[in-house]
Write a structure and sequence with these properties.
heterodimer, A: mainly alpha, Cytochrome C Oxidase, Chain A, two-stranded antiparallel ribbon, B: 299 residues, alpha+beta, Helix Hairpins, Immunoglobulin-like, Cytochrome Bc1 Complex, Chain D, domain 2, 3 domains, 5-stranded mixed β-sheet, 6 helices, 14 strands, 33% helix
Chain lengths: 539, 299
Amino acid sequence: MTVDALPYTDFYKAKKGIWSWLFTLDHKRIALLYLYAIISFFLVGATLGILMRLELFQPGKDIIEPQTYNQIFTLHGVIMIFLFIIPSIPAIFGNFLLPLILGTDDVAFPKLNLLSFYLYVLGALFALSTLIFGDGPADTGWTFYAPYSVKTGTNVTMSVLAAFILGFSSILTGLNFIVTIHRLRTPGMGFNQMPLFSWALYATSWIQVLATPVIGITLLMIVAERVFGIGLFDPSIGGDPILYQHLFWIYSHPAVYIMALPAMGVVSEIIPTFAQRTIFGYKAIAYSSMAIAFIGYFVWGHHMFTSGMSGPAAIIFSILTFLVAIPTSIKVFNWLATLYKGSIVIDTPLLYALAFIFNFLIGGLTGLLLGALAADVHVHDTYFVVGHFHYVMFGGTGFAFFGALHYWFPKIWGRMYNKKVANTAFAIFLIGFNILYFPMLILGIMGMPRRYYDYLPEFTSLNQISTVGSWITVTGIILMLINLIVAARKGEKAPDNPWNGITLEWQTKSPPPLENFDKMPQIPEGGPYNFPNAYKHKH
Amino acid sequence: MNASNFVEGVDFSLYLILSIAVFFLVGITAVMIYFLIRYRKKRNPVATNIEGSYTLEIIWTVIPTILVLIMFWYGWTGYKPMLTAPNDAMEIEAVGQMWKWTFNYPNGKSSDTLVIPIDKAVKLNLVSKDVLHSLYIPAFRIKQDVVPGKDFSMWFIGQKLGRYDILCAEYCGQLHSYMLSSVHVIEENKYDEWLNKKEDTSNEHPGLTLMKKNACLSCHTQDGTRLVGPSFKDIIGKTETIIVDGKEQTIIVDRDYIFNKISNPTSSTVKGYQSGLMPQLNLSEQEVNDMIDYISTIK
């Protein structure tokens, strides 16, 4: 290819100096700023997780006091949810790739995009400030359930304000993506010619814009109650703690889909590329994202089946919860069918995508148990929920996140990582992950409640297996990150399209120039994944 | 025989869903691995673009829908009986507070453990004195949140003699994982005997009885160990730094200080301890003085 040899300036070299990064309006640079920040917080959150597992290695006190433990699991939750999972895929890969896959030069509002980033930084500073100021980080759990969150002397106010600010960062990113998708698609690209990653971001963005304000106002209500003594949630001053739970989950359940949908979008990109064939059921996958986003609004009550809910309400929330499983299962079947008659190249990104399916299946299927009223009464608020949640969020979204990192790595840095090391790290990570979380599902069915600093002796051996799993998991993650850091600095030069991908980002240089495309990208004929070299299917 | 009347319904829905889940997990994973091998590039150098199939989309929409509706149904039938207790159920008040369960019987008897007769419907009226708790008996497959200000209840029948753990399933602060008790299912005649046996507290200091009843000792030890609040050992006459309205003061702990602290817990906090956790108790002046009399004996 002679095109590769032509000289050009990539977006790293287009401008120089620290200010060109801190005040950049380029979506690719903002994405990288997010990447460095988010990975750092992921490592902080993971360290806190390791500490918790160490404390749980044996019954009784191992290394830390109960109060410290409670603060650690709260901070672990706040960091992982608000600073890692929610922004991870949209803010990093959405920012970097949405304009590229739509064939345009930036998001609709570049300045708003930079503002989102700084709100993220501000929110993160608020969250971390609790380590230094006030009476220590909150000890309420990331759910901030009232009235404990109103009564406790720890610095709940700051933690809650952090989540409030981070919410605005999320809203603005969502707004930006919605407008970008509506207004900036390259000429000739209709909604149904968009890559599925943009569909997933589109569905996610609507949830971010419509649901996040609810948590914003709820968290402010906690602050009003703590600071001014207005009785909203604490019954001793006239409030209603159940009202808090409703308001909290009206956001926080849809938020689960903010965390999961972009990951599904990533998987929908990776699988066709490595199967070298068109996606099976494009419309089914695209529209099921919208269906999940819509139904996902009305299922929050399943977090409250044991909170004194009336029979009719329980029936409605349970049925809706089961219905939201349908579009998810449709996606899984379509991904599976996309492998059928493909010409499959097994490379690191595909491994992560398939691990996503496996882990997410466990996460989703255990979710059915939590949606069923009778079973939920037993396993609600136990380690079963902790296991389920980590299978969905870490085994699902986390694996998709690292899959995305490996998939678009050559595009972002123009270099390739060592695939052998990457695959080894993947295998260690996947095995460690399952040793870490599978025992939690069993512990929950045995009846071990969550948020437990200490436990009954019969839970010991499974807790020890889980803790050993955490060591294996972290080994895999460290190996993976070292491999990527080395590759970003001195990896082999990667071609512009190392995976023979067909979506538009693979038509430009790696790394892309500041304006993304030197010449107008060509939309593939007959659909976004219509690989020209594959056989045409005859009916 | 199952430990409670709810075990059958809960376990049926649990194992039904688990079996379906295992079937799909194993099936989908196996098909995935088969496709990876069968259609790897070496064996299948050219892919085929198959855009989709309406028939398949309908099949894999309809079958899961039917399956989840079946799951819903058994979830509901296992849950429905939990909602309403039979009219003849014997009622016991279950009180949750940081970090202690107390069970109050209609005849005035009060106990740390729940003692119930076998094969009798028992209805627990749930009361929280402070924050959220959740009364969870894993062996009975039953759990209900205890919410301050709400009249929630739960019921069950103990069907097998024995002792089963009661845990708190809703996070309630520092000693959440130590908020343990047990339910003791015994023969009916033994139960009557137990219920009518008066606890002999005549030799016990009235202050100690009051402190046990109000769960003071969950946070304040008698042996000098540090828990959530300062230990009572040698507390009178001790020099402490307290925080009042954000300002530090040094005081010598005396009867007046303790009296004020019990009567108005938010008035001050000893430096180094968490504020806001001590509950406001409804006690007479005499009762508070009894407690302080007892505290002054703890050496």
